Amino acid sequence: MITNLPNLLTLSRIAIIPLVVGLFYFDSVVTRWVMLGLFATAGITDFFDGYLARTRGEFSRLGRFLDPVADKLLVGALIFMLAAFDRISGLMILPALIILIREIMVSGLREFLAELRVSVPVSRLAKWKTTIQMLAIGFLIVGDAAPDFIPAVLIGDIGIWLAAALTLFTGYDYFQAGIKHIIKEETPPLEEEASPKPEESSQ
Hey, what domains does the chain have and what are their CATH numbers? Predict the structure, then answer.
């Protein structure tokens, strides 16, 4: 049901995206901290929607669909905007691109395996990747607006590289888990050997 609390929290995470994107066009110290607050709120809802769904038994197909989509929309939109406003530039584009490509590939793999009724559980390493990735994006959102004693840009840059490295490992794990099902799906069934024809009688 769309109106249960876990689903509403997930939808609120999607609703935050246009607000954060819009604030990029009103760049100031205040708006950067507001953006960070909205981003942190989205991260909190990401934890609580899953927690409440488990504790209250309010699982739904809509929730299972929306939760990973909301995460990928949020991360994708922010990486795109950070790059558009030169807060991710130069070589930093490479780890950001790795993260986006991995998210798209894993989404496609999950969709394919869902049709086969095969679930791919989230690994502990993937959870660490997500945590580091979100922290890095948070530091990059604030950027130069952070106090002088906090090297926010440097921390964000290092975090993005680390998240990209973990992305490669976790992406390989997901691909390895799904490739056997892909190969099985593509392998045609063995044709029954044709029974030998009886030899024609000599005339």
Answer: 5-179 (1.20.120.1760)
